[in-house]
Design goal:
Number of domains: 2
Structural class: mainly alpha
Distance between the termini: 134 Å
Shape: extended
Order of helices and strands: HEHEEHHHHHH
Number of helices: 8
Strand content: 5-15%
Oligomer: single chain
Strand order of the largest sheet: 1-3-2
């Protein structure tokens, strides 16, 4: 009898590893890159009358002692937008519209005459004709010389301009400062029928002829 002994400690085969399963990656929550940002550039500032006139050298003036109707203002806005970049302001009953190109100033001047946008009477909506506008400009030119001569004779030019500058020095806007200066004429010379217009002529002359001195130490934008 052959004693065949079985080794109970013989190694048993290792279990077969299960094949690895590949699981799908979770969707990314990252946002796709947006369009490149364009840096904001603020429009150029024109803080002084000289800077405005240098950037927009061609001007058209419209007499605006009265008012435009709402539809007229809307049409003017559309017209100005079509002419491109411009600047506008109003002082002493005259609106000034400035453009970069001479043909734009000419076009708006013709538009204002065709649409009868000139207002010659205070607080009126009546539009003046071409002939009336031409006569009014002549009258205003002659009146301007008379007012300036009167102001030099009476000494009111110096007082009015000094008062306007003092008001602007403390930060008062142009129109309230203009009214405050006009009250000096109204008080000292009650026979003057339109002291506000008189004061405006004097202020405008001083700003034009002595600009650097006129705005010295004044706050805010150096515009009338």
């Amino acid at each position: 009898m052959t004693n065949a002994m079985t080794d109970s400690t013989a190694a048993t085969p290792a279990p077969t590893a299960a094949p690895a399963t590949t699981s799908a990656a979770p969707p990314s929550t990252r946002r796709p890159p947006g369009p490149a940002r364009i840096p904001y550039r603020s429009p150029p500032r024109y803080d002084t009358s000289e800077e405005v006139e240098r950037a927009f050298p061609h001007a058209t003036q419209v007499i605006r002692r009265g008012h435009w109707m709402v539809y007229e203002q809307a049409e003017v806005n559309a017209m100005l937008q079509g002419l491109g970049e411009h600047r506008s302001g109003c002082f002493n009953g005259v609106g000034t519209f400035r453009f970069t190109q001479p043909e734009h100033a000419t076009a708006f001047a013709e538009y204002a005459l065709d649409k009868r946008l000139h207002r010659l009477k205070p607080n009126s909506t009546h539009g003046a004709t071409r002939e009336e506008v031409a006569l009014e400009w002549e009258r205003r030119a002659a009146e301007r010389e008379e007012i300036l001569a009167w102001g030099r004779l009476t000494g009111m030019t110096r007082q009015v301009v000094a008062h306007y500058r003092a008001e602007r020095h403390v930060g008062t806007w142009s129109w309230p400062a203009h009214l405050a200066a006009a009250r000096l004429i109204e008080k000292a010379h009650p026979t003057v029928t339109d002291p506000c217009h008189y004061a405006g002529v004097m202020i405008e002359w001083a700003e034009r002829e002595h600009r650097s001195w006129f705005w010295r130490c004044c706050r805010g934008l150096h515009h009338l």
